[in-house]
Write a structure and sequence with these properties.
Blueprint lengths: L4 H11 L25 H8 L23
């Protein structure tokens, strides 16, 4: 894999007697490190299985096209 520009700069500083910036990083990361997985095809199917595709009353669009009376 290619090195990022920031990593190249850090390596250059270390080679030329600079300070290691990795030491100033905290121990606890500020982002979540657990693995996220997308749903499988079977899980998506099971979620959609119980919905009726011909049920047009499930979506409530009644308030979207409301005509206002001129006052």
């Amino acid at each position: 894999m290619a090195k990022s520009r920031a990593k190249k700069k850090r390596d250059h500083l270390l080679r030329n007697g600079g300070r290691d910036v990795l030491l100033s990083r905290g121990i606890i990361s500020s982002f979540s490190t657990h693995e996220r997985m997308t749903k499988s095809k079977k899980e998506i199917f099971n979620k959609r299985k119980h919905k009726n595709p011909y049920d047009h009353t499930a979506v409530d669009d009644k308030d979207f096209f409301v005509s206002k009376k001129a006052a």
